[in-house]
UniProtKB/TrEMBL annotation:
Keywords: ATP-binding, Isomerase, Kinase, Lyase, Metal-binding, Multifunctional enzyme, NAD, NADP, Nucleotide-binding, Potassium, Transferase. Belongs to the NnrD/CARKD family. The keyword Kinase applies. Its cofactor is Mg(2+); K(+). Its EC number is 4.2.1.136, 5.1.99.6. The gene is nnrD. GO terms for molecular function: ADP-dependent NAD(P)H-hydrate dehydratase activity; ATP binding; kinase activity; metal ion binding; NAD(P)HX epimerase activity. K(+) binds at residues 63, 128, 161. NCBIfam families: yjeF_cterm, yjeF_nterm. PROSITE patterns: YJEF_C_2, YJEF_C_3, YJEF_N. SUPFAM superfamilies: Ribokinase-like (SSF53613), YjeF N-terminal domain-like (SSF64153). This is Bifunctional NAD(P)H-hydrate repair enzyme. It comes from Streptoalloteichus hindustanus. Binds 1 potassium ion per subunit.
Length: 489
């Protein structure tokens, strides 16, 4: 698991480290890491470093200071370095002096805009030191014009400028980096919203913040983590001991949601799946291994329920949801189950609040249930998780999973192919199967999100797919995460 630390936590850690390490030493470590990564990229992409051109976009603070020191280090490798100063009055003086001592050049963006533009446009690699952790709002117009002129590689210092450090949101022009070199640990801006894409490949440099950082605020589940957690039957297991998942979804008119959710439960684990609802014939035809019945009352015993996809929001759907919530087993409530919980608050009274519940809203469902998501998706999910004493999986390019005790994990998407009709039905089926296997509901939601996203990516392989193709790729995705776990064991 990789950690992500809120900006304020990083600042606290820095303050503690400053008590024994001078700020300038920390900055040089940070800048050295930027220089090393930039030199690597230059060597990879242009075949060397000597004689290559690097431009530094230098803002008003320490982020610009990092860029200037990185430029000074790159000079030692024979790189021609030009600093473009966006705020010459507030430039980091020691950093600039170091660069000039090392033989770097400087231009003032507002003073000689043509030379500034040329330096950026001609550079093999541009280092973005416009703003870092103190950045607020989008790029200013002068910075935007220079960023637009970049033709070479772009390395962001700490965070792409224009990305909100705490939420990853952008409110206008922002840097899109090939690589971001950050310090101590990832920040939310690297993994959330647009920031996850604009950061490019993130390198975390150790500058000695180490233990001062403490426990992360957010974790990222890697394929190896998911593979290690995925339920695997042992020699003593039979179909019941691995957990029976129940699926209450679909309707006679819309059987597809039921077929997809129930199919995902079949492929996720090797236990047993029961289905109850009006799509029993369609489910049985597609998945003969499922024990399907028309009525929820006849469903039989299960260890977890998936309820909601294609359920409808009428009286019949409400009765099914009430029945499921009353069973005292973990529930994954998706789609219409969420809409029903939003429109009929009495349904909450049926639920034993100690029984695990996973809610899987997209933004519109979330808004119905708990108000607008807003720009801080982690805060929104955390709030809803606490309010409903439920795990809340907020869907998006980056999926956020919050537990009622405040734990948050995010799953980063490789691409957007899984955003297709029926995809959510598959996700809820995966979660239900993992809940039935007895997994911690927060991890169940996170692992399911990871495998779901990987299955979408594998199935798509560069072309659009439907949810059925995503579903068919689930076994391959499970194989891959298990192989990753075996490789890292
Ligand atoms: N404090 C530390 O210990 C270390 C800090 N480091 C660097 O220092 C950075 C933080 O530096 P600072 O706190 O000085 O601040 P920044 O360099 O992030 O920002 C500087 C100033 O830019 C202005 N600004 C804010 N938003 C802007 C926008 N959209 N466009 C233009 N200007 C804007 C603000 O006046 C802000 O104070 C980190 O991101 C990291 O790069 C590293 O050197 C490692 C050590
Ligand atoms: K930056």
């Amino acid at each position: 698991m990789r950690g992500v630390w809120a900006v304020e936590r990083v600042r606290d850690a820095e303050r503690r480290v400053f008590e024994r390490t001078p700020e300038a030493a920390l900055m040089r470590r940070a800048a050295f890491a930027v220089a090393v990564r930039s030199a690597e990229l230059l060597a990879e992409q242009t075949g060397g470093t000597s004689g290559r051109r690097v431009a530094l976009l230098v803002g008003a603070g320490n982020n610009g200071g990092d860029a200037l020191w990185a430029g000074a280090f790159l000079r030692r490798r024979g790189v021609a370095v030009t600093a473009v100063l966006l705020a010459p009055d507030r430039v980091h003086a020691e950093g600039l002096a170091a660069l000039l001592r090392a033989g770097g050049r400087r231009v003032v963006a507002s003073g000689d805009s043509e030379a500034a533009r040329d330096a950026v446009a001609d550079a093999d690699l541009v280092i973005d030191g416009i703003v870092g952790l103190s950045g607020r709002g989008p790029l200013r117009p002068d910075a935007e014009a220079l960023v637009d002129a970049v033709t070479g590689l772009l390395v962001a210092v700490d965070l792409p400028s224009g990305v909100d450090p705490d939420t990853g949101a952008v409110a206008g022009p922002a840097v899109g980096a090939d690589v971001t070199v950050t310090f101590g640990g990832r920040k939310p801006g690297h993994v959330l919203a647009e920031g996850a894409v604009l950061s490019g490949a993130v390198t975390v440099a150790d500058i000695g913040l180490g233990e001062a950082l403490g426990e992360p605020d957010i974790v990222l589940l890697d394929p190896a983590d998911i593979g290690a957690l995925w339920p695997v039957p042992g020699p003593e297991d039979d179909k019941y001991t691995q957990g029976v998942a129940g699926v209450a979804a679909g309707s006679a008119t819309y059987p597809g949601a039921a077929v997809l959710a129930a199919g995902a439960a079949v492929l996720a684990t090797s236990g047993m799946v029961r289905y109850a609802g009006p799509a029993a014939d369609a489910v049985r035809t597609r998945w003969p291994e499922i024990v399907a019945t028309g009525s929820i009352a006849d469903a039989g015993r299960v260890q977890a329920w998936v309820v909601g996809p294609g359920l409808g929001t009428g009286a019949a759907g409400r009765d099914v949801l009430a029945h499921v919530l009353d069973q005292g087993v973990p529930v994954c409530a998706d789609a219409d189950a969420i809409n029903l919980l939003a429109s009929t608050p009495e349904l909450w009274d049926v639920r034993d609040p100690e029984t695990p519940l996973v809610l899987t809203p997209h933004d519109r469902e979330f808004a119905r249930l708990a108000g607008e998501v807003g720009t801080d998706r982690v805060a929104a999910a955390r709030r809803a998780a606490e309010r409903y004493n439920a795990v809340v999986l907020l869907k998006g390019h980056t999926t956020v999973v919050a537990a009622p005790d405040g734990r948050v994990l995010v799953n980063q998407a490789r691409g957007a192919w899984p955003a297709t009709a029926g995809s959510g039905d598959v996700l809820s089926g995966l979660i239900g199967a993992l809940l039935a296997a007895g997994m911690d509901p927060w991890l169940a939601a996170g692992c399911a999100a990871g495998v779901h996203e990987l299955a979408g990516d594998l199935a798509a392989d560069g072309a659009p797919i439907g949810a059925s193709a995503l579903l068919r790729a689930v076994p391959d995705a499970v194989r891959r995460v298990r192989a990753a776990a075996a490789a890292s064991a």
